[in-house]
Amino acid sequence: MNQMVAFLPLLIVMGAFMFFASRRQKRAMQATIDLHESLRVGDRVHTTSGLQGTITRITDDDVDLEIADGVVTTWMKLAIRDKIEPADVTAEAAVEQAAEGA
């Protein structure tokens, strides 16, 4: 009986750790689901491999990204990491223009 009481604090700490870890994972998964449901044609996005493109077509599982003028590639929706907001696009354009002018 004394041995079981000695392990009780350890079990409580392990249980709390598992509870908070699963909550964090559920929250991250819900954020990914929300992102994929919010995708629209014309959105600029980053993929998990770092590629940037503009969505030209969306199906249940795939998206077509235009990565250069007339170059369209097909990606799984799960490969979309995040959207590039319009403010981010203007900042990237300014950096590109500065690099071209140098």
From TrEMBL:
Protein's cellular compartments: Cell membrane
Gene Ontology cellular-component terms listed: plasma membrane
The name this protein goes by in its record: Preprotein translocase subunit YajC
Species assigned in the record: Mycolicibacter sinensis (strain JDM601)
Main localization of the protein described in the UniProt heading: membrane
Pfam families: YajC (PF02699)
One Gene Ontology term from the biological process aspect of the record: protein transport
TM regions (residue ranges): 6-22
Keyword terms: Cell membrane, Membrane, Protein transport, Translocation, Transmembrane, Transmembrane helix, Transport
Membrane topology: Single-pass membrane protein
Alphabetized InterPro entries for the sequence: Preprotein_translocase_YajC
Family matches, as NCBIfam families: yajC (TIGR00739)
Organism placement in taxonomy: Bacteria, Bacillati, Actinomycetota, Actinomycetes, Mycobacteriales
UniProt family annotation: Belongs to the YajC family.
